[in-house]
């Protein structure tokens, strides 16, 4: 025994000292043409390793120790790209797609990737690494956006966003650059009326396993963006590994994830990436486990197939689809019924799918053509029944709501680089939509089409001065309307001054338009002469943004923006007693005669300081002060529903290394938001009619209490030779703070009741990559 003891000690020591390695590789291409850049310099820190790209524009670093790295990519005549917060784990290669932009001078800012769209202000990138690391994101990029200044979640249960005081309805979801339907499970989650919305939901159907870097824009959009006034989340897909087959398995209280990626053929660089997810609550529900009377289930499938072709071209086929349900059944013990909902049986179902293709074709050495076609559809239904106390069966149906939404979106964009200082871009968007809601008189169907051509011209007119001017047109038609539709021209302009490599001052302006929600068009008004609001024009918006950015080093930057948004042609209620404006709309059907005679004004100041993850620490501090108001039909100005006054977010984290195999991370996020507003309820009249009745002329005069929520995420990463594992615990609202959501009259309580946001939500997850 004494003889083998030294051998055991030697074996244990070698195991503890074992170092695990993996590979960082990728391609470097011209951002305008997509052509590979040969001889680009690529270095990886904190090592001293460096290389240049080969004739295919590829680079490779093998046998790197697992851990955190930064890539720096430079090429003569192009701006430098810095890829921060890059995590290398055993069992998985890290593959990067770098796009460099020709530039004579570029700010030495802390960027994540050089593939940013041409927007000088109000843009944030959301990486998959941030989505996995930030606290309580549930792997949803929209929830990452709540760390940005001026952004707040409409409620805890869903990812609908209030951006600079705008309704979630003013936000647009895009996939690979084109507009799609609401891409979320459980779109009724947390809403005031428990009805489905067209802008948010409980869980994003597109799994994070497929996401690359997404773009979040909050105002003064460049010329290629249209039919939106509030904000944009453009989700981009990453390609699967084209050299090695890899798998990811994850189990959490959200669900079970299975992902696979790899080459489709050894003879080409074609690749596949596919993910399937099934809700863990669904598995428990199948075993008879109850969650407070609600049975919540969802499952989805996403894929991305990439086929590189000759001369640097690329063809992709992608898709996503999911089904979900939420069934509420009352307690068998009727004595335990406390609230009005306790006596109902509610069945909610949701189906969503999208399939598309894109083709990128370089044209010579200065131009490229990109074409995208996506068809997406959404089908939701919600049926509610009163429960018979004697038989416990369904009695009277008291609700039948739903959405049937189909959308086909097409885009083709031509980009041409005149020289290193000047670029030209022109394109066309075509969108056709059909939208149906439960039958109402005279019709519940809305058909629309939109044609959106655009041109943009960007030029570096001096070494320190860059400008961009553009023009966007929106030609739209609601088929139920007997008028000729609308033709709207929208100028866009931006200018950026860089007095040094470390700072920039920029100004952006945009005139934007957005069609009304289909609920607004099909809403019914009148008692004897019933009509609908199909004759409404799009809402329009002037947006001005002035920004300043200071970069202190390659991982720290300060951004300050001040903005003003003036909306006009806003539909407002013709009944002077109602004070109704669609800027306050979320999910309800207004059923009011509306006219395009309202306005809205939002202005504010935003500040954010960001330190990317270097030296095992990162931090993002952001805050804003803002004011959001609207003017009603008779010209009176009111505070809007989403006039919270301020936002504050602290997102931070620290990593700790334990030997060569383990990595611990502690991450926190603190949200402090000004309370949104609600209308005053007439308690006496509500008790008489047994429904919620708001006081006349009340507008949104009641301000709810400030919202405060701390979140926490703790993870432990363990590396082995051929795989890595991550054990994580997310705690949303770790303090259990009771934040107000809304108020309503509850006929069982016979009183006005305050509904609160979610309390403490723990989510345990285990991730295995190999």
Q: What labels describe this entry?
A:
770 residues; Immunoglobulin-like; 45 strands; disordered N terminus
Structure summarized in a few sentences:
By secondary structure, the chain is mainly beta. The chain has six helices and 45 strands.
Structural write-up:
The structure is a single chain. The protein has 770 residues and is mainly beta. It contains 6 helices and 45 strands. It has 2 domains: 21-118, Immunoglobulin-like (Sandwich), CATH 2.60.40.1120; 141-733 and 743-769, Maltoporin, Chain A (Beta Barrel), CATH 2.40.170. A hairpin with a 3-residue loop joins strand 22 (344-363) and strand 23. Residues 1-16 and 105-117 have low confidence and may be disordered.
Determine the N-to-C terminus distance. Answer: 38 Å
What is the CATH topology of the largest domain?
Maltoporin, Chain A
CATH superfamily of the largest domain: TonB-dependent receptor, beta-barrel domain
Ranges where pLDDT stays below 50 over 5 or more residues in a row are 1-16, 105-117
Share of helix among residues?
Answer: under 10%
CATH class of the largest domain: Mainly Beta
From the helix content, strand content and strand pairing, which structural class follows? mainly beta
Mean of residue pLDDT values:
87
Oligomer: single chain
Tell the overall outline: globular
CATH architecture of the largest domain: Beta Barrel
Total individual domains? 2
Pfam families: CarboxypepD_reg
Protein name: TonB-dependent receptor
Keywords: Signal
Signal peptide: 1-17
């Amino acid at each position: 025994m004494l003889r083998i003891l030294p051998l055991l000690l030697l074996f244990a020591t070698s195991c503890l000292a074992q170092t695990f390695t993996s590979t960082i590789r990728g391609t470097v291409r011209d951002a305008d043409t997509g052509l590979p850049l040969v001889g680009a310099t690529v270095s990886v820190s904190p090592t001293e390793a460096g290389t240049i790209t080969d004739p295919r524009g590829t680079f490779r670093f093998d046998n790197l120790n697992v851990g955190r790295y930064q890539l720096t990519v430079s090429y003569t005549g192009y701006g430098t790209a810095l890829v921060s917060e890059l995590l290398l784990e055993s069992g998985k290669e890290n593959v990067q797609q770098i796009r460099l932009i020709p530039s004579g001078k570029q700010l030495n800012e802390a960027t994540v990737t050089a593939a940013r769209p041409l927007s000088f202000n109000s843009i944030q990138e959301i990486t998959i690494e941030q989505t996995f690391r930030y606290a309580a994101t549930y792997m949803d990029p929209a929830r990452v956006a709540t760390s940005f200044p001026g952004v707040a979640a409409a409620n805890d249960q869903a990812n609908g966003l209030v951006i600079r005081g705008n309704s979630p309805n003013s936000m647009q979801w895009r996939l690979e650059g084109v507009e799609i339907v609401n891409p979320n499970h459980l779109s009724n989650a947390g809403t005031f009326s428990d009805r489905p919305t067209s802008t948010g939901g409980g869980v994003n159907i597109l799994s994070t396993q497929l996401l690359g870097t997404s773009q979040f824009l909050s105002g003064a959009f460049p010329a290629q963006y249209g039919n939106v006034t509030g904000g944009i989340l453009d989700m981009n897909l990453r390609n699967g590994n084209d050299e090695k087959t890899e798998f990811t398995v994850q189990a959490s209280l959200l669900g079970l994830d299975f992902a696979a990626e790899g080459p489709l053929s050894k003879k080409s660089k074609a690749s596949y990436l596919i993910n399937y997810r099934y809700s863990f609550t669904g598995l428990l529900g199948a075993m008879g486990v109850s969650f407070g009377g609600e049975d919540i289930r969802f499952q989805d499938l996403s894929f991305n197939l990439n086929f590189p072709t000759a001369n640097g071209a690329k063809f992709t086929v992608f898709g996503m689809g999911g089904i979900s349900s939420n069934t509420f059944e009352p307690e068998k013990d009727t004595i335990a019924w406390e609230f009005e909902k306790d006596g109902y049986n509610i069945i909610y179902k949701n189906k969503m799918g999208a399939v598309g293709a894109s083709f990128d074709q370089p044209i010579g050495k200065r131009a490229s053509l990109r074409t995208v076609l996506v068809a997406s559809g959404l089908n939701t239904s919600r049926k509610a029944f009163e429960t018979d106390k004697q038989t416990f069966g369904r009695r009277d149906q008291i609700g039948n709501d739903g959405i049937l939404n189909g959308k086909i979106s097409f885009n083709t964009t031509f980009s041409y680089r005149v020289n290193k200082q000047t670029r030209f871009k022109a394109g066309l968007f075509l969108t056709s939509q059909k939208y149906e809601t439960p039958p109402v008189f005279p019709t519940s169907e809305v058909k629309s089409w939109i044609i959106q051509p655009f041109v943009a011209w960007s030029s570096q007119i001096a070494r320190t001065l860059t400008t961009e001017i553009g023009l966007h047109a929106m030609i739209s038609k609601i088929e139920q309307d007997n008028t000729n539709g609308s033709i709207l021209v929208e100028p866009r302009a931006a200018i950026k001054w860089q007095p040094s490599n470390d700072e920039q001052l920029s100004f952006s302006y945009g005139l934007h338009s957005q069609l009304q929600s289909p609920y607004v068009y099909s809403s019914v008004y009148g008692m004897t002469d019933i009509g609908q609001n199909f004759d409404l024009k799009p809402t329009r918006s002037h947006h001005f943004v002035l920004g300043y950015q200071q970069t202190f080093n390659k991982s720290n930057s300060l951004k300050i923006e001040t903005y003003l948004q003036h909306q006009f042609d806003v539909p407002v209620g013709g009944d002077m007693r109602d004070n109704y404006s669609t800027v306050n709309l979320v999910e309800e059907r207004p059923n009011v005669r509306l006219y395009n005679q309202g306005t809205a004004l939002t202005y504010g100041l935003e500040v954010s300081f960001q330190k990317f993850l270097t030296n095992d620490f990162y931090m993002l501090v952001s805050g804003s002060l803002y004011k959001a108001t609207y003017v009603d039909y008779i010209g009176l100005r009111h505070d809007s529903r989403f006039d919270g006054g301020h936002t504050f977010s602290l997102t931070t984290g620290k990593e700790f290394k334990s030997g060569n195999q383990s990595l611990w991370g502690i991450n926190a996020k603190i949200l402090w938001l000004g309370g949104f507003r609600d209308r005053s309820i007439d308690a006496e009249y509500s008790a008489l009619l047994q429904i919620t009745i708001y006081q006349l002329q009340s507008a949104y005069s009641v301000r709810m209490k400030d919202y405060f929520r701390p979140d926490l995420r703790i993870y432990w990463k363990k590396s082995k030779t051929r795989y890595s594992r991550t054990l994580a615990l997310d705690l949303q609202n770790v303090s259990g703070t009771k934040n107000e959501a809304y108020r309503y009259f509850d006929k069982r309580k016979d009183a006005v009741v305050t509904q609160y946001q979610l309390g403490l939500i723990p989510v345990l997850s285990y991730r295995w990559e190999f």
